[in-house]
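If your schedule permits, I should be very grateful for your opinion on a structural question. I have a record of one protein: its chain in single-letter code and its fold written as discrete structure tokens. Kindly check, if you would, that the fold set down in the tokens agrees with what the sequence suggests. I remain grateful for any guidance, and I place the record below:

***
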Amino acid sequence: MNREIFYKQAFNLKGGDFIKAGSASVQIKRILKEIGLSSDIIYRVAICCYEAEMNVIMYADKAEIDFSITPEEINIIFNDEGKGIENIELAMKEGFSTATNAMREMGFGAGMGLPNIKKNSDEFNIESVVSKGTKLSIKIFLN
């Protein structure tokens, strides 16, 4: 398989910045449209990116997104610094949320973020260290 990267970009996110929440996801979606990828792929990437971006905004101090495209796949890695996830298995359950009341009042915290990311990705991996941060790796195949 050819693993040559033909597009790569990094994005920085700041935790708690609800004003800019979703902006990296919108940029990634625009890039995929310009490349001419199918609407199905764009839809899946957009869901994964938005859900992961909102988790960073809600729970982490900051993060970097490494976004790359090869002829075979789209790779998105969210690497955040923050409080981490105490129980990944529990966090993966639909409906489980640690959102604050303020987050819920803004319409977030339904507990569907990580399950939606897993459902819309072809490969999904999450690693977290409490008091350090979380690394989320998402892969979506183009064929």
About this structure: The chain has five helices and five strands. Helices lie at 23-35, 39-59, 88-91, 101-105, 113-120. The two ends are 13 Å apart (CA to CA).
